Input
Amino acid sequence: MRLLVVEDEARLAHALRRGLAADGFTVEVAHDGPAGLEQARYGDFDAVVLDVMLPRLSGYDVVRTLRSEENWVPVLMLSAKDGEQDQADGLDYGADDYLTKPFSYVVLLARLRALLRRAPLPRPPVLVAGDVTLDPASRRVTVAERPVTLTPREFGLLEFLLRHSGRVVTRTEVLDHVWDMAAEVNPNVVEVYVGYLRRKLGRNLVETVRGVGYRLEP
Ligand code: CA
Output
C-alpha cells in the first residue's frame, strides 16, 4: 500500500516514514501544503496522513481541494489542536478520520489499516433538507436534483442554516458565522440574503421567526 505523509515537522515525518516502511508500506513524504496537494493529486496513493498546520496551505485546504476535485483518497488528519470544533472542521472538509497530537504510533497504524479496509470510499456528508442538498466538499447545491448556483455568501448562509436546522438562529449568530467584519454590517442584510435564498431555491425552507431570527425546517 502506498502512503503519502504530509508533515512539516522533520523529526515526526522521518519517524512516520521509518515506522510505516518497517510495517510494509511504501511511503512518500511532503513537507508543506502545496507539495502535499500536488503529490496527493498525482501520486496514486492508497491513503494520506495529513497534518493540519502546514506551511503555505493548511491541511484543511488540502483535503477540501482534493474533495472538490472528486479525489476520495482516504485521509487521516493529524493536529495539535484538540478542540471538538477542530475535529468537526477536519471531517466537514472531507477527512475520513482524525488523530490529535501527540498520538501513539500503534493507534495511528490501527486507524490507517481501518481506513484502508473500508470500501467503497465514503463521501463527505451532504446536508439535506427536504429536496434541497448542499455538499460542503464540492460546494454544490441542488434542488430536486437540479443544480443551483449560489454566491459564496448565499452558500455560507444556507450551509449555516442547514447545520442548525430545527432550531432558531438569531440574526447575530448568522452575522457572526457568515459575514466577515460582522460588526460593520447592517443586520438587515441577513433578511435580504434570506430573500435571495428563498427565490433561488424556489422553496420557503427558511422561516422568519419575528423578532428572534430564522429557522430552517429539517
Ligand atoms: Ca505542522
Notes: The CA atoms of residues 2 and 46 lie 5 Å apart. The chain has two domains: 2-117, 127-216. The mean pLDDT is 87. The pocket of calcium ion is lined by residues 8-9, 51, 53-54 (CB under 6 Å).
